Amino acid sequence: MVIAGHGRVRVEPSTALPTDAEIRAQLDRIRLSAEFDAPDRARKFLAYVVEETVAGRSDRIKAYSIATEVFGRDSSFDAQTDPAVRIEAGRIRRALERYYLVAGRDDSIVIKIPKGAYVPTFERHVDAHTETSLRSSAFAGPISSIEPSRQPWIRVGIAAIAFALGGLAAYALLQPGTTTGNGSNTARVRPNIPTLVVLPFEDLSATPQSAMITRGLADEVVDKIARFKEIVVVTRDNPDHLRQATDGPAYALEGRVRLDGDRLRLGIRLMKRSDASVVWANNYDESLETHKIIDLQEKAAAAVATAVAQPYGVVFQANATQFTQFVPDDWKAYACTLAYYGYRSDLNPQTHASVQECLELATREFPNYATAWALLSMTYIDELRFRYRLDRTSPVSLERAIEAAVRAVELDPQDVRALQAQMLTLYFRGEFDAALAVGARAFAINPNDTELAGEYGFRLALSGQWRVGCAYLSQTVTRNPGPVGYFEAALAVCSYIEGDYADAERWARLADLRANPIYRVILLAILGKLGKTDQAHEERKWLEANVPGFLDNIRKEVALRIRRPEDQQHFIEGLREAGVSVPSN
User: pLDDT tens digit string along 102-137?
Assistant: First the structure.
């Protein structure tokens, strides 16, 4: 598969490609910059893949060659069971993104490593004002990654969206509802949520084989997107739903399929139905020789569904941007769900309180809204596990979280967010096996939901299945286009348990969830193992000032999260070495 990114910086088709000398000079500029925040191994990784590509040997760039030639692994390396190369590639992508946002804004050459590949791409910088003209030819130009990149606005502004939407939604939901002539409330059965119309895909090759593949791809895309419950999927086969899709945020998904010998190209674009503007477009290339057609259809459809419909996906980004400016009265409940995902960006206790109140009001207004019940349950879990809202006179009990999760599952047993909430409530009740069984069921329903995959992976890891669970986490960090600090903190725990404390600190620093007490505890244990006593002292001071008494019962807190006694003891060792007094029993 050949992939290149549709990001903020683009290639002007009429511009000549960068020369080898320009590419090498740009590589040196990046590696020498303090804003390229990556360890030595990652820098060697980047240099290796750039030099191999410039030398015309890009076909040799595989996970195995990187592991053996850059990381020094032996011939037994297996990329299927060892995620080291994928994790490092994700770290390089984030470091490059940061570099081009800060120090490299005006650089003439852009080096990228697209998601799903290790072969870099080289582009000339084009200013943002060219975006509109380029978008008008959505099915032309370079092939692009099917998964959206992490947009800069997500990194710097999504917490503000949570505050804005939380406050606006809470205010609106408190207002009297629209009533009919006899005084009864209307439109209270379910809230408005975005609608996506999947149009029949266009067969550009017009052969019997291409017609079959085109129909199959369209069906698979509908099936995969329908598993995300934060969006309603309709087709032209349902005229009633199609008419309803003209109200509120509504989108249309178009696809074009072309066969050229043994190559398949799927072109996808997402448009706003209100003005037919293109919100997002990507192309997807695959070889018919290397995949069975059914497998190829499923793989392509899964990538499209993940890009479009997952939390922080293309539809989320479009709606969050729109609703930050104005939230229509009849979209407040949906805005509460956007606010929840905004809160997830930094797990801040102040944002948490606003979002929880918003979701409580949404479930009162729409008691059959399964997703709102699921997200509300998870805010209750967060209140317990992160020690939020300590000043409340009546602390939220685990039972309240359980009740909300059960309600969500009863309303929609196929809603993976509801099952995710149920998994967490069971886990924190100490029913580990039952929790993992629910997580496995949710993952089977929608393995393309990266939020669910990451949380399920973390539960697997903390239950002792570190290799499998941490692999899920690393895939989530790679595939999720939104803020992934929570999952980066989880990968810090993975590295800690492996004994790679320097790598654990790097993951923790990337996560940077400074307002979250558990993040501070993870960092504290890592600093203890690294012997960084001064920094550990600062973390202890913060915890003592902001969550008084939390460290006094830290053994119980560790046991609440980490299942195996030997793993608990390993983590407690780091806390002791950081200066925390932990009783032996």
Answer: 778 778 889 988 877 888 988 876 543 333 333 333
User: What tokens were used for 526?
Assistant: 């890592």
Pick the CATH number of 448-584 from 1.25.40, 1.50.10, 1.10.287, 3.90.930: 1.25.40
Domain boundaries 195-307, CATH class: alpha beta
- Name residue 142's amino acid: P
- Coil, strand or helix at 54: helix
**Torsion angles phi and psi, residue 177, rounded to 5:** -80, 160
Give the tens place of pLDDT for each residue, 208-229.
Answer: 888 999 999 999 999 999 999 9
Give the CATH class of 327-446. Answer: mainly alpha
Structure-token pair, residue 198: 């999947």
Output the six-digit token pair for 436: 């993992």
Whole-number Å distance between alpha carbons of 201 and 216: 10
pLDDT digits (tens, 9 = 90+) for 43-70: 889 999 999 988 888 888 988 899 899 8
**Cα separation, 567 vs 464, whole angstroms:** 8
Q: Give the whole-angstrom CA distance, residue 53 versus residue 94.
A: 20
Tell me the C-alpha distance between 227 and 242, whole Å.
Answer: 19
- The predicted model scores a pTM of 0.72
